[in-house]
Amino acid sequence: MIRRFFDKRTWPLWVSFWLPLLTMTGYFIYRGMAPFGSSSLLTVDLGQQYVDLFAYFRHTLLHDPSAFFYSFSKTIGGEMVGVWAYYLMSPFNLIYLFFPGQSITTGIFIVTVLKYGFAGLSFAWLLTKTKTQKGWLVPTFSTAYAMMGWMIANQLNMIWLDTTAILPMVILGLERLFKTGKVRYFAGWLAVMLIDNYYMGYMVILFSCLYWLYAATKYWQNVKTLVVHVAKFAWGGLLAVALSAWLLLPTFWALMQSKAKYNVTKVHWKFEYAPWKMIAKFVTGTFNFDQMPSGQPNFYVAWLAIFAFMLFFLRRKFHWTVKLSSLLVTAVLLLSFCYEPLDLLWHADQFPVWYPYRFSFVFCFWIVWLGAQALTDKLTVKWWQAAIMLVLSVSGFTTVYLNLKHVSFVTKANLMITIGLAAVTLIFLLVGKQRRRIYQVIALLLVTVDMGINAFASLNNLSYVSQAEFGNYTSALNQSVAKIKASDSSFYRIGKTFTRTKDDPMQAAYNGADHFSSTFEKIIPNFFGSIGQPDGDGVVAYTNGTLISDSLLDMQYFMDKKVPTAQQSNTNYRSYIPVTSTKPDLTNYRGQSRLSTKKVATYKNPYALGLGFGASAAINDLHVSKTTGDPIARQELIYQTLAGRSTSGLISAENFDEVVFQNVKKVTTLTGSVLNKQNLGKTGSIYFKFTPRTNDSYYITLGSNLNTDNASYYINGKELKQYPTYRHTIAVNVAANSKGKTVTFGIQMKKTSLWLQNFTLYKLDNAEFKQSAKKLQQQPWHLTKHSSRKLSGTINITKKNQVLMTTVPYSKGWHATVDGKAVKTKKAINTFVTVPLSKGHHTVTLTYRPPLLLSGSLITGGAVIGTIGWFALKRRRDQLHF
């Protein structure tokens, strides 16, 4: 049995799989990655986003399959098909089912090294099935491909890595299309690519079009055959799209509500940087943190593959038309890396937010694939060919050396190492080959060392989240959430004053209000930004809730980090439970000692309104724009309109009792003023003091200019705990139940001047607020059943002109029935679902059906049935003919 799976035909495949896998495993063990040490693979987006989504993947499959379509863990609610299509459709993710909680980092380790292995195996399969290479040269080129610079640079974006295993299969399908006329391999693997990750699949489609041009010259026969190949290529692409339509169509709808609305792209017909800088990326170890937000494409491959690629254009083996088409494809790819219109085309007309030139994996494939076709098993090059290679490489290295100050990602040491690797490789190719197999093994070792050095030099530039930091926080969060869930099975949302990531609700599978993803409906950041919460394109952080917003959004529970005891290290405590919200308002909520843990205190909000409640129908006609006052004024307007009460009197602007300027020129008007230092060499500080005459809640609004880049902020001498980035005015809770106690809000300037943008002190009339909250709580929507995509309950409407107001984000996917009859939903304040109701007792049900899911499923079903029918008919014809 062992010999059957490991024989002279299969051993190159096994080596191609295990060599990159074990090489990267060895490096990760050296770095002490969990489970082999105290560190983890979590860094940047993998640590801030993907790990939480992987945990949610596990929760969905094991506990709540309906969350595939919709989730209330995605901020206050959002569609999930788009999230799954972009982040979670990889079959490798099934491994996470075996790694709960903090152990998921071990699952990430396993999945990462497996993706390296399967990339090598897939490329090896392409080489063997096309009879391009055999023996030891199969793993030689496969390792160069599997450990390419793009792979090393983007292993932290592991949701994209499946592409490296699927791309060679798509190309094999194209090769078979030209050789045999069969479309099914190309269409099938392209469909797999689109389902696995439509974003990378789009890039594979573009590359397939370029590859078709090359293959058309490679397999040229006549015009008639060319037309047939065009038709079959188009049919294969359409069939792939049809087979994946069940996922693509609802994803397309999701993108229209999210990413497609964020960026307005204006094309500039220009080069993005000096093209010669790409040469520097052929130097080992040229990936670092600075290259993530902006940089040059990562396409480093072993110098053996680079020289083999050059050899493709120098050998007489290939017809001049094939060389010309190959040169054209190469030119288009290189131009795409620096010419903005082509760069935008590859990224679907959206500038990438970090990680530029995400399509550089196709260039790595192109280099290695052409090189594998050019370098024979004799591993020989002629002197004149070597001379050309030498001139090209020396020219490239000289250009980089003379411009080192312009390519900061290149170190002189790495340049010297690369020159050494290139020299050894070129000399090796010139040496006479008496014992061919030994030389092939040497070639494999040379490539492995080359790619290993690049991985080592590149990844050593990155820092990672420690396993303890991730594990301790995750355990503390999960324990606290588990206690709340065990005590209350109804629908509610949970807020907190600490944050590891904006996807904490997905990590611990609870209904929260934070979120970060590329497929985030725009209406939620717009709303959150308007009511004083930090927001951005694809991100919200509910860290600045007021009594009003907590009530409205049904924040029934709040988790707060406990103050460390004398025996505990506050520094260590803070490192894994980072506080991001100052919230004196918690003194207005009821402490729940039975729900608290050693590290987290839990509070219950008596003013929470529930997911739905009876409210004034005037809310449907209320238009709240960002020009309607500031966040506190907008909250007052919304809340009082819902309650059918006066839209003024709930809040009031207050004056400070005293303002102390230290090394800052005095101003008479605060809001909107520009403060300037007197002595530029000294610190400038301003202290705003007031003494509350009541126990009401007080808030200070800070414009987006008043961020941590421009100043530091303090409340009574202690640093303000605040999520650091926000693009709109936020509301900071500075006092509650502080009657007679002086409150000092301090600002320490970091620059010579500071704009007091939207800087105002507000008082919330707590008694007025409680009356409005009590009125709104009188007509609750009693949920009898609730899941991720279906909500059903009863409500008793006691007055005319009332609606069921929900804090379910509006979407065309939500469908309502009232007493069993379909009713059209409406959108309130451009954000929430409302259902018009008459006076009386009603049963209201909301059901979510992803838009276009049915249409996509019908298309896919038709494609599957049609394909099966075609093969059945063809088989029957063949049998009758026989």
UniProtKB/TrEMBL annotation:
Keywords tagged on the record: Membrane, Transmembrane, Transmembrane helix
Q: Does the keyword Transmembrane apply?
A: yes
Q: Does the keyword Manganese apply?
A: no
Locate the transmembrane regions by residue number. 12-30, 81-99, 106-128, 159-178, 198-214, 226-249, 297-314, 321-342, 354-371, 383-401, 413-431, 438-457, 852-873
What is the name of this protein?
YfhO family protein
Annotated source species: Lactiplantibacillus plajomi
